[in-house]
Amino acid sequence: MEINVQQCCEILREMDDIVILCHRNPDGDTLGAGFALHYILAQLGKRSRVECHDVIPPMFSYLLLDYKPEEFEPKNIVAVDIADEKLFGSNLEKYCGKVDLCIDHHGSNKHYAKNWLVRENAAAACEVIEDICYGFEEVELSKIIADCIYTGVSTDTGCFRYSNTTGHTHAVAGRMFKAGCDFVKINRLNFEVKSFSRIAIEREALNTLELHYDGRCALVYITDEMLKRTGAAESELEGIAAMPREVEGVEVGLTLRWRDNGYKVSVRSGEEVDASAICGKLGGGGHRCAAGCYIESDLESAKETILKVVGELIEKEDAR
Amino acid sequence: MEINVQQCCEILREMDDIVILCHRNPDGDTLGAGFALHYILAQLGKRSRVECHDVIPPMFSYLLLDYKPEEFEPKNIVAVDIADEKLFGSNLEKYCGKVDLCIDHHGSNKHYAKNWLVRENAAAACEVIEDICYGFEEVELSKIIADCIYTGVSTDTGCFRYSNTTGHTHAVAGRMFKAGCDFVKINRLNFEVKSFSRIAIEREALNTLELHYDGRCALVYITDEMLKRTGAAESELEGIAAMPREVEGVEVGLTLRWRDNGYKVSVRSGEEVDASAICGKLGGGGHRCAAGCYIESDLESAKETILKVVGELIEKEDAR
Fold first, then answer.
1. Of the candidates A166, A191, A216, which is a domain's last residue?
2. Which residues are CB-neighbours of A86 under 8 A, at least 6 positions away?
3. Is the predicted pLDDT of residue B271 greater than 90, yes or no?
4. Which residue in B269, B219, B266, B207 sits closest to B241, CA to CA?
């Protein structure tokens, strides 16, 4: 059943010995929402613990400062920021079909829980958690809760830069300041600090930067040898695809990454060119500004193939 | 005389044919404040124009969309975001001693104007401009004014990451969303887009990255040859000094940059180590987390000199 914030608070008040589920490959929003909810429940005198398929990345350890997980036989299950049971991961499969409450912000939410509070226009699940916190008169929005909620809204909006950011997102962030959240540290950890191997692979990718079509298209590539040389893990490549589009004047950014017997191509574009149209021609797909495809060939042919499609699209745009 | 917002609005209401001054090497806050004020004055039926010692960087052209500078003999002079007449630049020297009103947020403001409205706890001059806008009942906070004000608060806080950001800064940003500001485009222009030569010099600097003292200190350098090879201008080096501190685990980031007969050293540190203490030992200075000094020597000796001082400081910290 779809519920509102007040009903959600009433349902939580009836619960105890609660397992809070975060999605696999956890990010700042699912963890921020999960731990914020834990601290809220703790103030209500309830036992809860956060569970996730994956180990929580060490950079998020500041969310766990006041966290003492307890052993208990769960009576209730709550999922946060999880649109689909598929995102539980195999370690949490046992909870499929058993979720009492889901708190989320994805329009694609599958309504797999008994009750769900899903706010589609929220940039982060943590925006919803804030309202739940205010829904309990006796709960104080403490510093650690503020750190959790700020982490969710900041990371899910790329530090207030993505188009999902709203005036409400800023209002939430502003209220977390009043509760003393440590935004400088949180943003440094989430947006500035990089592992040495991540910097090494960025450097290698930058060294391959080529401009095409009068500087309107930029291309970088990452070969198998580069991955081996730098020791960069798959998880450290996130965001690399945004690099070529950072060059002034570039409308289409291409990132080719070796995988199996060919190259995975990530395409990023501005308003002018449709990235999903480019990838569609090569059997891939995605969104207007971010799409991908796979080309089974060596580097030189993969470059040639994708550049040819990009060139045709740019010509078409110009002809309009 | 020090004035409040209401007095400031009354003074502006009495003015006409107004020259608005921005500081030299103009940034998003001085330009955002200057053009926002121009659009406010235009709604009041007053003639004004924005003047700056330097040419306005093309990336800020979106601030000028509704701007039609007019020719007139100025009757009044208003300075925005300018703490000191020294920051006028030689082209605006003629206005020294003639400023009627200064709107600013620098605690160091020299009170050189006849009247000044200086809010020290504001992260940006644009936060003050917002209040001035509300001070005129008949002025509407239009989209272009919102774009100007958002530009100021976002750029002066590094997109809400610097420690000067407050809950009020977020509240201002949130209100600009309601007025339809184009935050995605503004942040892309200010925080993502880089010239090809900037990317080239970043790449060259990254290629020199060295770790010292068990990875607690990172060093990059930029030689004369690198500047010549990439064609990077002085103005394109801004922010490069932040790069070495982005490496995970690094407490002290060092950037050596060739100048004249030696190297300008930029030191960036976290809470653990005092950057100004490091630079102080070599005749420089600055703040706790960001400081600089100059070492007149070749690259190898400059590196040796600064690394020795850093090593001593790190040892001292550990002994505590």
1. A191
2. none
3. no
4. B266
Same domain assignment for residues A186 and A268: no
Residues B97 and B202 in one domain: no
pTM for the full model? 0.90
The beta-carbon neighbor of A203 closest among B159, B183, B203 is B203
Specify whether A185 is located in the same domain as A233. Answer: no
Show Cβ contacts of residue A125 under 8 Å, excluding neighbours closer than 6 positions.
A29, A30, A32, A33, A80, A81, A103, A104, A105, A152, A156
pLDDT digit string, tens, across residues A137-170: 999 999 999 999 999 999 999 999 998 999 999 9
Distance of alpha carbon B280 from alpha carbon A127, whole angstroms: 45
Instruction: Tell me whether residues A162 and B184 touch, CB distance under 8 A.
Output: yes
Which range of residues forms the domain containing residue B244?
Answer: 196-319
Contact criterion met (CB < 8 Å) for B161 and A159: yes
Q: What is the ipTM of this complex?
A: 0.89
What distance in Å separates residue A314's CA from the closest CA in chain B? 20
Q: Is there a single domain that holds both residue B117 and residue B130? A: yes
Q: Tell me the CATH number at A12.
A: 3.90.1640.10
Q: Choose among A173, A199, A200: nearest CA to A187.
A: A173
Per-residue pLDDT of B77-111, as tens digits, reads 999 999 999 999 999 999 999 999 999 999 999 99
Residues A110 and A234 in one domain: no
Q: In this prediction, what percent of chain B has a pLDDT beyond 90? A: 88
What is the number of structural domains in chain B?
A: 2
* Among B119, B184, B121, CA closest to B151: B184
pLDDT in tens, A159-214: 999 989 999 999 999 999 999 999 999 999 999 999 899 999 999 999 999 999 99
Residues B57, B148 share a domain: yes
B291 and B219 in a common domain:
yes
Which residue, A120, A148, A123, is CA-closest to A22?
A: A148
Test the B interface: residue of A62, A155, A161, A190 with most B CBs within 10 Å? A161
Average pLDDT over residues A40-69: 95
